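Continuing the series of single-chain predictions for the mutant panel. This is the parent chain; the variants come on the following pages.
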Amino acid sequence: MKQPSFKFQSPTGMKDILPEEQVYFDAIEEVARKYASFYSFLRIDTPILEDYQLFAKGTGEATDIVEKQMYVLKTKGDEILALRPEFTPSLARSYFENGMIAWPHPVKLYTMGPVFRYEKPQAGRYRQFHQLNFETFGSKRPITDIEVIWLFYNILKDLKIKDLAVQINSIGDSQCRPYYKKVLVRYLKSQERNLCPTCKKRLKTNPLRVLDCKEEKCQKVISEAPQILDHLCDECKDHFKRVLEYLDDLEIPYILNPYLVRGLDYYTKTVFEIVSQSGPDGRQNALVGGGRYDDLLKLIGKKDIPACGGAMGVERVIALMKESGFKIQQATPQIFIAQLGDKAKTQTLKLMEDLRKMNILTESQLSKDSLTNQLKIANKLNVKFAVIIGEEEVLSKSVIIRDMSNGTQISASFDKAAEKIKQKIKGQKKS
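Parent structure:
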């Protein structure tokens, strides 16, 4: 009986990150590391799996993330765990669990890695994707909000993302938001017949989320809805005023969006998105989202610790990097070692290690035997020098160093070969 053939593929909405894509991830991580180091943010990595209740409590049970998008599993020990759909609750949990409350404040952390959400896969949206987060715990000052925005804004500029602007709003706090919710619900109930089915449900569970709806039929209703900026308490009003003044001082372009609420329960006061219109069709791409979440740590660790942060969608940024023609500067080898025979292969590895210690980038093709074919590869790579180790060179414990620009070559003892190559490279640079 003929056995059925099986074709294994990656799960829907999850993809392999191939070598040609890795260079973009590396470029983003390198820029992020540079800014993190300069602004004193410390790297942290949290588990991919967390207790389900961490996100149910922290992110919010009425959010789309928890209700519809989170991957939840039950372990053999009857634990209910979830693949992290975002980083912020995990970092808040780690802050308490690892005693960071005793560290000098503010505690400034950053991380980058995969997150998971069960959504309909489409262009630029995956079920496994990556985020870069910067988070600050322990400061309620408006300048902290700005530092986070400033970091992401400059990282995106370094990555050559154009037409950047910050969409910004304040959603108040526990003092003023409850009254605004009442005003908003009263208005939305009067317009309920004009809302989409999802927003009719949100009206009962999380009315602020109605303002986040992108459905066309809801847009008119939203455009005439009461604005929270008209109902802020004095503290929130003053905080937001200072944030906008800092944006002006730093000449960061921003758009006051009174209907920006973000989709998570824990936000208070400042919420923001950094958007770009540099795509080929002029569409607005939200690349970074974040804000202040002064109540989250109280919810998770029962301590009144103010906090602020943001997350950047790595795949979205990579898509724009490609569209803008961002050039990845990849190091090219200076030396190619061609070899013939088993003994020459081991000598090649020894010499490559000597050159690595000297930071001289070297290429070799140990699986190939023909010297002619190997030297053809050296020509294609446009290396400065080729090193040849044949059977005679193994016996005499030497190598041949060939100048690829003019074909001249010299012999050098094997134990002096790396130093001789270094001198040749220096001499070529001077000439």
